[in-house]
């Protein structure tokens, strides 16, 4: 059997399995996407996951919109913990996620990323009028896709290039093959200057509002400037201004 014959047979079987499992109400764009794939997903949930992976920028917008609907849990603050602290991120490069913290988690049936109810097939709306979330689910398919995007935006270089119409965000010149994804506002600066902002607003620094594609030369120059600024800030933080016995201000290392 050739590869083409195998794919055809596999898609016939997968389509038949998918159609048997489809409910009477199912998102039309998701079904249309599933049937157009080189390998048709055999279950509705896999079809939903495939749809959001293919529409990653849409998943990013949706996940952040759902987070705004949930809001910041009362008493939560963005903190960075050690490797043994499961309720805290280990680095400022990881997006803050209060609903992954056991102290603020809403339990099964609620998304651990955005905090909103999860319905059938990992969908974010109750299209089936069931009235209750799916108690076996812990995340939206869209939020999972968005979370992976926030952690590794370079994996979506092609989609981000298309969003910028293949123009460098800093120079305006055509993007080269060596172009790279960059955070317009560095994440260390987000932690240093903006960590007290409401949680849903913080997510914009990992999402498309703060992402840009730049040519490598421009990116190297920007990273060099950021490293210099960060080094100066760290050096200055080691000193403090105090008054001596005569009333004069002096700088001492503290």
Describe this protein's structure:
The protein has 254 residues and is mostly helical. It folds into 2 domains: 1-54, no CATH class; 55-236, no CATH class. The chain contains 9 helices and 4 strands, in the order H-H-H-H-H-H-E-H-H-E-H-E-E. The strands form 2 sheets. A two-stranded antiparallel ribbon has the order 1-2. A two-stranded antiparallel sheet has the order 3-4. A hairpin with a 5-residue loop joins strand 3 and strand 4. The longest helix has 21 residues, at 216-236. It starts with a helix and ends with a strand. The mean pLDDT is 90.
Q: Structural class, please?
A: mainly alpha
> What proportion strand?
5-15%
- The overall number of domains is 2
Spatial separation of the terminal alpha carbons: 74 Å
What is the helix content?
40-55%
- Biggest pleated-sheet summary: 2 strands, antiparallel
Describe what is shown at a glance.
By secondary structure, the chain is mainly α.
Q: In terms of topology, how is this protein built?
A:
Elements lengths: L2 H19 L6 H8 L8 H11 L1 H15 L70 H11 L5 H7 L16 E4 L3 H8 L4 H4 L8 E4 L1 H21 L2 E5 L5 E5 L1
Antiparallel strand pairs: 1-2, 3-4
Helix pairs in contact: 2-3, 4-5
Core attributes:
254 residues; mainly alpha; 2 domains; two-stranded antiparallel sheet; 9 helices; flat
């Amino acid at each position: 059997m050739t590869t083409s014959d195998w794919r055809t047979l596999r898609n016939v079987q997968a389509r038949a399995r998918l159609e048997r499992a489809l409910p009477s109400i199912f998102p039309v764009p998701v079904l249309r996407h599933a049937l157009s794939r080189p390998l048709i997903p055999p279950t509705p949930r896999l079809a939903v996951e495939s749809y959001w992976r293919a529409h990653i920028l849409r998943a990013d917008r949706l996940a952040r919109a759902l987070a705004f609907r949930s809001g910041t849990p009362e008493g939560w603050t963005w903190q960075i913990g050690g490797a043994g602290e499961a309720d805290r991120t280990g680095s400022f490069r990881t997006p803050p996620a209060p609903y992954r913290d056991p102290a603020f988690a809403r339990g099964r049936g609620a998304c651990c990323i955005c905090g909103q109810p999860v319905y059938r097939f990992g969908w974010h709306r109750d299209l089936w009028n069931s009235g209750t979330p799916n108690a076996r689910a812990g995340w939206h398919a869209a939020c999972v896709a968005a979370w992976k995007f926030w952690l590794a935006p370079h994996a979506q270089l092609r989609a981000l290039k298309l969003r910028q119409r293949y123009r460098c965000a800093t120079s305006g010149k055509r993007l080269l093959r060596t172009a790279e994804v960059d955070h317009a506002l560095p994440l260390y600066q987000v932690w240093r200057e903006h960590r007290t902002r409401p949680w849903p607003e913080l997510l914009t620094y990992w999402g498309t509002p703060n992402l840009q594609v730049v040519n490598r030369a421009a990116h190297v120059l920007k990273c060099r400037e950021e490293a210099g600024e960060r080094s100066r800030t760290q050096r200055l933080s080691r000193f403090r201004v105090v008054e001596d016995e005569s009333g004069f201000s002096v700088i001492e290392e503290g």
